[in-house]
Design a protein that fits this description.
The complex is a heterodimer of chains A (314) and B (467).
Chain A (H helix, E strand, L loop, with lengths): L1 H15 L1 H41 L1 E4 L3 E4 L3 H6 L3 H34 L3 H15 L2 H12 L6 H7 L13 H26 L3 H9 L4 H12 L1 H16 L3 H6 L13 H10 L4 H25 L1 H4 L3
Antiparallel strand pairs in A: 1-2
Helix pairs in contact in A: 1-2, 2-14, 4-8, 4-11, 5-8, 8-11, 11-14, 13-14
Chain B lengths: L1 H23 L10 H9 L1 H4 L16 E6 L5 H11 L3 E6 L5 H13 L6 E5 L3 H5 L13 H4 L4 H7 E2 L2 E2 L2 E13 H6 L8 H13 L15 H8 L6 E2 L7 E4 L4 H15 L11 H8 L5 E5 L2 H6 L10 E5 L12 E9 L6 H10 L4 H9 L8 H4 L2 H5 L10 H12 L9 H16 L5 H18 L3 E3 L1
Parallel strand pairs in B: 1-2, 1-3, 8-12
Antiparallel strand pairs in B: 3-11, 4-5, 6-9, 6-10, 6-11, 7-8
Helix pairs in contact in B: 4-16, 12-21, 20-21
Classes of the chains: A mainly alpha (314), B alpha/beta (467).
Chain lengths: 314, 467
Amino acid sequence: MSTSTLAPTSRRLTSRRPAAVSQIDSHRQRWGWFYVGPFAVVFLTFLVAPLGYAFWLSLHKKTLAAGETFSGLSNYQKAFTDPLFLGGLGRVAAYVAVMVPIQLLVALAAALVLDTLATRLSQFSRLMIFIPYAIPGVIGALMWGFLYSPRFGPASDVFGIFGLAAPDFLSQGSIFGSLVNIVTWQWSGYYMIIIFAALRGIDPSIYEAARLDGASGLQTAFRIKVPMISSSMVMVMIFSMIGTLQFFTEPQVLRAVAQGAIPVSYTPNMYAYSLAFAYSQFDYASTIAFSLGIVVFIGSYLFLFLTRKQSGLS
Amino acid sequence: MRGIRSAARSRWLAVTVGAAVALTGLTACSGGVSAPATTGAGGTTASAAGGSGGCTNEIKKPNAAQVTVWAWYPAFAGVVDLFNESHDDVQVCWTNAGQGNDEYTKFSTAIEAGSGAPDLIMLESEVLSSFTIRNALVDLAPYGAADVKKDYTDGAWSDVSSGDAVYAIPVDGGPMGMLYRQDIFDKYKVPVPTTWEEFATAAQALKDAGFPGVITDFPTNGRAYNAALFAQKGWTPFTYDTAKPTDIGMNVGSQGAKEVLTYWDDLVTKGLVGTEDAFTPDYNTKLVDGSYAVYIAAAWGPGYLKGLSDADPTAVWRAAPVPQWAGAATTAINWGGSTFAVTTQAKDPAAAATVAKEIFGTEAAWKIGIEEGALFPLWKPILDSDYFANLEYPFFGGQQINKDVFLDAAAGYQGFAFSPFQNYAYDQQTAMIYSMVQGERTPDKVMDDLSASLLTYAKDQGFTVTK
């Protein structure tokens, strides 16, 4: 940022007094570095250096019995043929396919409704929809763990009213839906705020024109509002997709009450975590982490490429 | 973009583990979930990071050398104070770094990092070889371990030593017995079983007589508990000697284990036992509210039960020996039990070894451990004492459970060899047994697949595997 704003100024000065300016210029650049410095130090120390170290680790193979050796890319070959890693990837891909559209639809519907209302109630509703996002992920998952519990949760009472047996939300067959529910509950409000903000940015005179042309409320929503906020929706989808590929907190917390239904390698992130901290395979865990990073990068790139029209990035 | 979400996630990563463990009291630890241990696990985690720094306890003699200790024993504060008051040359600086796996995760990370581990650490005997293979524990033989050998039973000593090398000092054990609800068996007029065959009959009889619960739970995530049940039919999945760290003998898919699993699969299929995960809030409540008539437990089990809420106030608990297989020799089994080990990061291994040998080396310390912490001592002077044998437990209506059940079980226990990748083995075992309960695998296939998967893992980890 600082360089682009400096550029035109310096060019103008250069044309007048070349010698003195370059001194000012370099002086300014030094101050520029001074301002960038704190960020650069943190960035290098806490992001670039650990990434580099993790990559270095991922090129080694350390076993319990045989010690550590340099193994090149063979860990990556192992990762992309490891049924546990591939199984986890398949699972998060399924979560992306189900969870992203649900979250987007819930968020869009809530935002569209709230956008047309201008009452006290709508402000209150907006806050209420947003609140789950303000609850820390771990707390939310713990809370849902209790709600799903056959003993402490309300399900058996609710189903009991109709004389039915409550389903076991933590069984192998239903854990997928249970986790989708938690994440949707937690994140839809956040996405709703993003979409809502984008809706507020639309010039109201467009709605007036639409009304004069005889457009109904629904037509305004789907023919005008949705196309005009498509870039925000692409952003929401990419947030949601990346977050889902890195799925960790909710299944990790629920694993405490459903160890059978959620194995250690349920998602790639959980697998990497177990490898590093439970099985002390830090090298292979780094490989899994990088492999997941590669998949996320490719996935995001593809998605952005396919939606380049809607996002306005083309 | 990525930053927002991933930062949020990683921030919670550390908390997740703590919370997950606080929620459940994960492992088959000797400590159980009595209130001080659980709250301590969450509350003191932050200060545990450095291995030194703030201690949970007060240092009585500030000029003496300090030994940092991680441990999660219930009622341990009193034991630490007792030690510090009676020693002028060395002081204990104690931190509760979490129970079981929670602590091991921190220790494992500290080993990898090369710093941050305490001088002395509480470890269950089943994980000792997982840490000796990483050169994380000091051989205590040069520090006078042989002097205290006479104070422990052969079985307890064999669990912590290999040849002349001694990697830890035993503290408490987990000989197993059967805790049962006398009132439930009386109400439905079902005799208390002494063999597994009678146990299955009793399970059916209780159900037929209208008992709304089940006789007991068969948790697929029982880990050491399930292993102990297999061990009763001679399961010796691993043979491992720390002196030859790269060799391991494996016989996981043995006939005995398959028979035990077939027995439980049959009870599960008939709906005579539960299949709830162990150590969850649901399970804890069911243990004490009359949903289960029997709790197959270790000697620390009564302490665990006492710490649980929502207990049935009319419950009449009694202890009996663990059921045996008819026609087979009586086989004692063990679940849990812990030791103190000196880490290779200890600044002063001699001082740490002194603490290991002496902290639970007095009768006064053990009285705290037994009466407040419900621990089962492995220290012979108290184990063999009349005090311990005759101790009456109010929880069991004054029954002398040590004399009746646990002393014999402890004396008969022959020891059990665990693998140096025990955590992985347990995780695989849990996944396999769960698939059996789900009807995806037969008991035989569970053991065969478990065997194959552990064999692959052992080879991948560079071990030379023998049968």
